[in-house]
């Protein structure tokens, strides 16, 4: 067997080595080189970061009524608690996610989990309402940093042909976490039927989080990030560790510097680069649809138990009886868990189709499906009994399926693919933060609007935002299915350099 050539004078990038497979002596491809142990280690550790987000954020939906009772919270305070972790995600994605462009993917990959661990322990021990909000915010900051960092450390370490399904496979652990969060809430309440049960819900994540934190110390740094910062020897060393396998393949790694490398990094590493002519379209595509989908996904996800308990007539209005509160939340947690199953089914569909159908068609169609699900659920107010129940469940289940096969999955995937390596962390972080503005808004306003305008009108509004999301996606579309990210952005830089050279010749 021999190693393929990328072409005369072209030079190899890190992604070229990750993507290539060996050839027989006659030039026939042997087949795809298997993923290495290190590549799978990175994937699993990143996947569990998304699991913890789903676990903590969606578990809050079960815990909020208990927390509200223990701390005697008002409707506004209720909304603040629901929005606290999401506000933290917004800040973490923007303030910390972009730091992976400066300090490295691995460094922030480890730091975010340490922050998560500290605030998770404090959250379970919260002595009062103000401290509860602070600790939820701290947990959110760590989870926000994980949005860009986990995506980038995966996407910069795996083959281009498998990038969509592997990144989304890891992202799918968010849905698994949401389901487990609802299940944990049910199990804890069933075995510990008291107001303080919410503390044990959060505490269940402490030991698993500690194991993931330790594991993240033992991954490689992103070789594309090292290369983008001119650390070529380090990039070759880390790439060799990443691709270590038996038998050894590739036999050696020698990276060639691109002619525009220095110019690219000098001009395009700051936040302003996201709004330059070259990146503006990518910034709009990555951030605006994410904002629109988070309005619905987090509103429905956080308050599904509350909506079910109220809409199905099982909640006792303004009850302060502990027995009634526990019974209501156990019933609502059961219904929420059933609905959350469709999140997992949806993400499985996204994993299977993202590298076949493409990101843009799935995102646009998913938005349309979300609108349909919300409209179906809105019809429930006109019925009672079994029909009302069927419409609510059918609508929410369709919404969860379509959001995860479409915008909830694809916005995350696209945000880590449409920006150049030098600002990929900032771009993905900005998109996640912009998305979480929608999540924070809906988490804070949802209980207030639910009381003021009712479930039906609220669902109408969310359906409208989904339709707008489909239109924005299609208008600013950039398809990244199977694209070698190193060479895609390198071609853009080549075009700019050639254009600049042409202008210079004309001026001369």
Automatic annotation (TrEMBL):
Name under which the protein is recorded: MFS transporter
InterPro entries (UniProt xref): MFS_dom (IPR020846), MFS_sugar_transport-like (IPR005828), MFS_trans_sf (IPR036259)
Record's keyword terms, sorted: Membrane, Transmembrane, Transmembrane helix, Transport
Cellular component GO terms, alphabetical: membrane
Pfam families xrefs: Sugar_tr (PF00083)
Compartment annotation: Membrane
Segments passing through the bilayer: 42-68, 80-100, 107-125, 131-154, 166-188, 200-219, 295-315, 335-353, 360-380, 386-406, 427-451, 457-476
Organism: Ancylobacter mangrovi
Topology with respect to the bilayer: Multi-pass membrane protein
SUPFAM superfamilies tied to this protein: MFS general substrate transporter (SSF103473)
Domain of life where this protein originates: Bacteria
Molecular function via GO: transmembrane transporter activity
Family: Belongs to the major facilitator superfamily. Sugar transporter (TC 2.A.1.1) family.
Boundaries of every Major facilitator superfamily (MFS) profile domain copy: 42-481
